[in-house]
Design brief:
Mean pLDDT: 96
Number of helices: 4
Low-confidence stretches: none
Radius of gyration: 14 Å
Shape: globular
Order of helices and strands: HHEEEEHEH
Helix content: 25-40%
Strand order of the largest sheet: 1-2-3-4-5
Length: 123
C-alpha cells in the first residue's frame, strides 16, 4: 500500500496506542475547529483553514505523536508546556499518557485567531 491519501487511511495504518491517540486527536480537532477541512500534507494529517492555510499537523511515530503548530502558537503556550518535549512548533505526546485536551483546544483556537486576526500563515 502506498502513502495514505486520507486521514482515515493514515489512522487505519496504525495500531494500538498510536491509533487510539490519533483518533482522540482527530475528535479533538473536529470539536475545536469544525470549520477546518482535513487533508494529508507531507504524508501526515493536517487541518486546513477555509482560506487554505494549514492550521496544524499531526504525525505518528514509534513511541509518540506530534501535534505541530506554528512556532508562534507553540511559544504562546511555553509556560504550560513545561512537562512536554517540544520542537520548533511541535508538542510531543507520548503514547499511554493522558492527552492534554484543554490545552490543545486552546492552542488550536489560538492558531485560528493568529491566522484570522494577524495573518500568520503556515511556516
Amino acid at each position: 500500500m502506498g502513502r495514505p491519501q486520507t486521514i482515515d487511511e493514515y489512522i487505519e495504518g496504525r495500531t494500538g496506542p498510536g491509533r487510539e491517540l490519533l483518533e482522540e486527536l482527530r475528535a479533538l480537532a473536529r470539536e475545536a475547529v469544525p470549520e477546518a477541512s482535513e487533508a494529508i500534507k507531507w504524508g501526515d494529517p493536517a487541518w486546513v483553514h477555509p482560506s487554505g492555510t494549514i492550521l496544524f499537523v499531526v504525525s505518528a511515530h514509534t513511541k509518540h505523536a506530534n501535534v505541530t503548530f506554528t512556532p508562534s502558537t507553540r511559544e504562546a503556550f511555553d509556560a504550560e508546556l513545561t512537562g512536554f518535549a517540544t520542537g520548533k512548533g511541535s508538542v510531543k505526546l507520548p503514547y499511554g499518557e493522558p492527552v492534554p485536551g484543554d490545552l490543545l483546544r486552546r492552542m488550536m483556537a489560538f492558531r485560528v485567531r493568529e491566522h484570522e486576526d494577524d495573518g500568520v500563515l503556515w511556516m
